[in-house]
Every structure is written in structure tokens, then in C-alpha cells.
Amino acid sequence: MCGIAGAAWVNPSHRLSQSELHRMTDALAHRGPDGRGVRWKEYANGCGFALGHRRLAIIDVANGHQPMSNVSDTVHVTFNGEIYNYLELRSALEQLGYGFQTDSDTETIVYAYEAYGENFVEHLRGMFAIGLWDSRLQKLILARDRLGEKPLVFCHDPGRLIFASEIKALQRIPGVGSQLRPASIDQYLRFGYVPHPWTAYEGVEKLPPGHIGVYQNGSWSVRQYWKPNLVTNDQISFDDASQRLKQSMEEAIRLQMRSDVPMGAFLSGGMDSSVVAGLMQQHASSPIQTFKASFLGDSSQEDQQARQIAKRFGTEHRQLNSEIDAVDSLEKLVNCFDEPFADSSAVATYHLCSWTSAHVRVIMTGDGGDEILGGYARYRTVDRLRTFEHLPHPLKRVLTGPWVDLIPAFHPEGRLGKLKHRMKVLRQAPNSRYVHWLSLFSRYQRESLYHSDFLENCDFQETDQFLEGIMSPYAKERPGIRAMRADLHNYLPCDILAKVDITSMAHGLEGRSPFLDHKLVEAVCEFPYKVLHQAGLVKPLLGKTFSSFISPAMMRRPKIGFGMPARIWQQPRFLTLVNDLLRNPDSFCANYVRSDVIDTMLREHSSGYINHGERLWSLAFLESWGNRFTDMARRSEDTSSGLDRSISVTTIPD
User: Fold this and answer.
1) Which of 175, 208, 227, 320 could cross-link to 293 by cystine, CB 3.0-4.6 Å?
2) Rounded to the nearest 10 degrees, what angle do helices 326-336 and 613-629 cross at?
3) What is the rounded average pLDDT of the residues 228-250?
4) In which band, very low, low, confident or very high, does the pLDDT at 651 lie, cut at 50, 70 and 90?
5) Residues 199 and 245 in one domain
6) 599 lies in a domain?
7) Within 13 Å, how many C-alpha atoms sit on residue 212's CB side?
8) Residue 17, domain CATH
9) CA separation, residue 105 to residues 36, 117, 124, 381, 445 (Å)
10) Which value, in Å, is the radius of gyration of the alpha carbons in the chain?
């Protein structure tokens, strides 16, 4: 788990200087507090490369320094993540004649590339963002793991390509990431984040999950290397699915427990974390450490459940009870995230990671369980509506006709208001319907929110087609499956995994997600919807497969998200914050959104008429981020005076 940065260029006029490489690695110091390494080389033909690394030592603590090279010094790698099958891969490579100098997982990447070329990524089982330089072919390769657990951003300028774990490292280079991409404002207010491959900045992109990029002779190309068959197989029975899930999950846990430093697990009291913690304890020779956080004043059934589960498993359980101030947390999160990020659960995750990092360096999470096993209620809702699609078209037109617009919605969250909203949503196609439900601000709300000049330049169709395009390959699947695939490709990597990576790495903590082992995902995604859903139960396949860890009562209890309590949004400090930020006529948001609409939202929220807490938080984050990051030229100034002079640059000889 680390921070990586680097570049390749085709002539000296586009080189990344050694001092710029230092500044980039400095910007990633929080991701790797255990050391820094760099490699820099310029060849006689003017081509060159630079690789930087900040290390969080997990495997082979003494010898796993990066960038790492092969024996002939022709292949060089900087790598963020963990290769869980590195022992098996090492054995296979040794049989091919490759010798190893360290016990690190990084070295397996070096020789896997030598053995398999660009197909080396297909042999890696883990989470990773990789920058690899082949000096023989003068080629830079970037690769990102299949599910998007590790981030990788880049900027392709004429004559060079620059990459890093985080945008803030790119912004240490003058002119890179200094201009806002206006379309990202609408994307953010639609999704709550800026989805890949876009970012909030002109000229800066995210490498999508499961993709590899090659830069050679000034040319840059990207291709998808992981194209799994995510189509369901109706012939798979519940018992067959249960057996495959059990085998795949136990193997994922066994592989991901490889570590040379202390590790633990988040134990929320929910189903996913209970399975992870239970399997970890079964594979451990001593009690594992488990962690749970809750907010003071919010008695939670999951708190008690977590304590009971920990006692039954025999873990060393710790529970954090604290009162978290959303106002103080906002500035901390804006400092961590390089783009606007609306998911308020980042507040709780940030503090949980901060506290946990004092005890362990690796933490297992239950992330991904909901997206692959149908844990969200919205999957069941969208699937139930498939019966509507089977009605005769004349009847559907009658049910969603003009009479719906005449329903008096005195209160948007009252019964009539919800009925009116749902009937209007039914007018949309199934895929569009799900896109609508995922929106932070619906299309109608955004059309009302924006200034006319900004509205004219918004391409709503592009934003709609992005998510609908993800769902289209699964047109023959049930709506519930299509919704799950949409989240697997978009919501999971862009929101959940981005949140965990940023907040954990801010505290030198590595997060691992056994549910996202790609072989497990490939197996589970073949399971038909009938196996994943049973009336009245949440994730019945998971619960019945691991019944020794999960009680029947847990399967009947609705999912409880890990986020900010609703009462936070009515705290005077929060209301003062949003008033001060959003009612300022010179605010960043004032360039895009109408002040009268903001005033209406604030009045409705303060009076308790409508809970706009999450939307106001998203606008407050956007405002704080905009104030800090729009003038990127200011952040490109020389910061070399703060360099760690104890780190030397290794220049590779000709």
C-alpha cells in the first residue's frame, strides 16, 4: 500500500525534472510514511522516464523498497497495492528460471512482466495501481486492478505522460490540473462524485478499473484487460451457489491474510463484516483485532450486535464512541479529496480509520458484499417494478398519464408527494429509472438549480448515457441484476472504494476487501437473481452459507448504512456553516447555482419541511473544495525548499 508517481517523455523539452519528481512524491507522503524512492533516466535519443514511490511497508518490510528493478536493470516498477497470490506466482516464475532477490510481492510484478509481457496483469490477483517502465522498448505501462480498489490518474500532454496515485501529486507540476472542467460540476451534483474516466480538471483522467495503458513513442493507448462474463446462469441452484460462495470466500480470506504487519477487521455488526471477521478468526492462530465506531447519542442495534459477535468469535474487540463535528470534518476531508465528494459517510470512515491506524496497519472490510450479493433495497425495488413493464402499453399510459401531475403533493415527503414522485418515475424506461434513483439531484432539480448560462452548456444526455451504457450489455438480465452491475462498475469504484482508499491512506492504513477478489466476483456474478433474493430476507445466500456467523434475525433486519446520523444536519454549527458558505454572493457555487433555490432549500431544511441535509452537505463540500482548488496555478509554485534531502535520486547509467 503506497503512493506512486512518475512520467515518460519523448524529448528533453517535455522532461519531468528530478525536482518535480520529488515534489510529486512529497505530495503523497501520507500514503507512504515508511520511505521514499525514485528512479530517473534520460537516454541519448532524448526519451526518458521518472518513477517515484512512497512506501507503506506491509510485505517484506526490510527489503521491499521501490521502485524495484530486475537483475538486468531493464524493467522498473513502482506499485501501490497488494498482490495476494504473490507466493503462487513466484513459484511459477521460479519454474520458468527467474531468480528473486527479495520476498516482496513487488518483485513478482517485475518478472511476471518479463515472462508474460503486457498480459502480466492477467496473472495478478489483488488490488493494484502499477507504473512499469521497459527500457528496452522505451515503453511505459500503467495498470489498474479489476474492481478499482486502487486509484490511478494521469495527464497526457503532447510529448509526455504523467501519472500518480492522487491528483494532488499531478498538480505539483506547473500547469497540470490547474483548470476546472465545468461538466464535472453537473456530474458531481448528479452522482455525488465525478465518475471515471473523468476528473474535475481539464486534461486529467482516471484510468478505469480493469484497464491497462501503454505510452510509447509519444503515443498513448488504453485497453480493457478484464472482460468477465457477468451474465447469470439460471441453471445454478441455491446449494451449488452456496458451495461456490463458501469456497471462493474462504480462499479470498486465506490469501488476503498474508501480511508481515498487524492486521484486523472492521466489525459493524452487519452481515458482510461478520463473515469477514469470522473467517479471519478461523484462519488465525490468536485473537484478531476488530473495530467498531458509533456516534454518541445514537444507540444502535449494530453496536450490541457487534459486541456479541466479537465475543462469540473470540476477537479482541474495540469500540469507538465519539461525537463527530461535521463542520470540523469538512475541512479535513477537503484536504484529502482532490475532487468534490458528497458521500457524508466519509466523515465517519475518516475518523474510524484514524482511530484504527493506532492499533493495526492492515484492516479487512466488507466492501463489495452488497454490490455482488444484492444487499441494497433498491435492487429489490427496481426488480419488483418489472411487473409494470409486462402490462399492456395502453394500461401503462393510463397509470402514468396526465392525472399524476394533478396529485396535490402538499409535502414532498408525505404520502401523496411520494406517490406522485413514484408514478412520474414509472414513466421512464427501466434503466433510466435506476439512474434517476441514484441521483443526488435529479435532472429536474438540477435544471431548476442551475443558472441559465451554465444550464445551456450542460450535456444531461451524456451523463445519462454514461450509466445507462454500463447497464446496456445486460439488457436480457432482470432489472435487479442490471442495477447490481451498474453499481459494480460505477458506484462501487467511484464512491465506496474511493472513499475507503482516500480516508484510510490519509492515516497510513491499508484496507483490504475479500468480497472483491476477482475470482470470487466472477463466480458470484453467475448466480441468478432467484438465488440472491428471497422475500423478507437480506442477502439470504450469504446468510445461509455462513449461518455459523450470521443469525436468522440478521437476515431479516434491514441494512443499516454507516454514515452520518440525520440529527447532524440540524445542528446549529452545520446550519451556520451552510448559510455562511452558500449565501455568500461571491461564493464558488454562485457561479453555477441560483441563490434563490439555495435559499428555498435552506428554509425548507431549517423548518423541518424537507430534509435537505445530504444535498446541503454536498453543496458545502463543493463550495469548500472550489475555494481551495480552483486556482491550481497557485499550487504549482516551487515547493522544493521542503524536500527531504536524505533521499537521493538514482540515475541509471547508460
Assistant:
1) 320
2) 50
3) 95
4) very low
5) no
6) yes
7) 17
8) 3.60.20.10
9) 17, 18, 10, 43, 49
10) 25
CA distances from 249 to 274, 364, 481, 491, 542 (A): 13, 13, 21, 22, 10
Write a three-state SS string for 115-151: HHHHHHHHHCCEEEEEEEEECCCCEEEEEECCCCCCC
Residues 19 and 165 in one domain: yes
> What's the pLDDT band for 208 if we cut at 50, 70, 90?
very high
DSSP state of 78: E
CATH of the domain at 526: 3.40.50.620
Q: Which three cell numbers stand for residue 404?
A: 399524476
Say which range, 142-151, 463-472, 486-495, has the weakest mean pLDDT.
463-472
Could you give the CA distance from residue 425 to residue 411 in angstroms, rounded to a whole number?
A: 17
Q: How many domains does the chain have?
A: 3
Last residue of a domain, one of 538, 556, 574: 556
Which residues, 6 or more positions from 519, have their beta carbon under 8 angstroms from its beta carbon?
Answer: 125, 248, 251, 252
- On average, the pLDDT of the chain sits at 88
Which parts of 145-241 are beta strand (E)?
153-157, 160-164, 205-206, 211-216, 219-224
Higher pLDDT, 134 or 428: 134
Boundary (domain end) residue, out of 170, 202, 227: 227
Cell of 180: 476546472
For residues 219 and 285, state if they share a domain: no
The larger pLDDT score, comparing residue 127 to residue 634, is at: 127
pLDDT at residue 284 in the model = 92
Are 545 and 599 in the same domain?
A: no
Q: Give the per-residue pLDDT at 299.
A: 53
User: How many CB atoms are closer than 10 A to CB 652?
Assistant: 16
Residue 641 lies in a domain: no
Strand partners, 514: none
Residues 162 and 305 both lie in one domain: no
Based on the domain organization, do 276 and 333 belong to the same domain? yes
Q: Can you read off the three cell numbers belonging to residue 550?
A: 450470521
DSSP state for residue 44 in the 8-state scheme:
T
* Inside any domain, residue 46: yes
Q: Mean pLDDT over residues 66-94, rounded? A: 95
Instruction: Give the relative orientation of helices 345-356 and 497-505 as an angle to the nearest 10 degrees.
Output: 40
DSSP state of 405: G
Give the residue among 152, 170, 162 at the shortest CA–CA distance from 206: 152
Domain hosting 368: range is: 238-375+482-556
Would the pLDDT of 634 be above 80? no
d(Cα 163, Cα 170) in Å, to the nearest integer?
7
C-beta separation of 231 from 527 below 8 A: no
Beta-bridge partners for 317: 290
Grade residue 77 by pLDDT with cuts at 50, 70 and 90.
very high
Mean local confidence (pLDDT), 66-95: 95
Q: Are residues 160 and 297 in the same domain?
A: no
Give the pairing type, strands 126-134 and 153-157: unpaired
Query: Per the domain annotation, does 591 fall within a domain?
Result: yes
Q: How confident is the model at residue 254 (pLDDT cuts 50, 70, 90)?
A: very high
CA 111 to chain centre: 29
